Amino acid sequence: MFRKTDEVKVLRDPVHGYIHVDYEAVWQCINSAWFQRLRRIRQLGGAYMVYHTADHTRFGHSLGVYEIVRRMVNEVPDLRDALDEKEKITVMLAGLLHDLGHGPYSHTFEKIIRGSHEEYTCRIIEEGTEITELLEAECPGLAKEVADVIRHTSKNPLLPQLVSGQLDADRMDYLLRDAYFTGTK
Known about the structure:
Elements: E1 4-13, E2 17-23, H1 24-30, H2 33-36, H3 58-75, H4 77-82, H5 85-97, H6 108-113, H7 117-126, H8 130-138, H9 142-150, H10 158-163, H11 169-182
Antiparallel strand pairs: 1-2
Helix pairs in contact: 1-5, 3-5, 3-11, 5-9, 7-9
């Protein structure tokens, strides 16, 4: 049902080693202007002023979250067997796109704009952007399903827990990535 890339795309990552992309929808989202803007959003806001190597970005973090989710749904036997292809793609895309709505200075920016980055993320995914068009071209209704995972209203309650729950891919990546780039244990 979902189109595969001509070959598996492999990106080198200092935290996870390699990030593998083999679905066209994922690859197109990575190459979209909305996702590429995350290269300019620092993961830890102004912390690089104290920790000079803490200048990693939401781009790298989002790829890391995607890779952890991808590994969960493909390598954990109970998840691999419990989820169908559409659910796996949906949750991988939710992991990849979960921080699209972030602005500069991390969560401090949310206090200024009086809104959450999750709200903006869901709007970017659903409201007629390049991301919306990519997801809908792949599978009608996919944009809403990805946004529903992010807003914790998915038909399958397991999917949001993989991205943002008690022991989730988002937390797993930022703990490893932030420690690596700040030089802490």
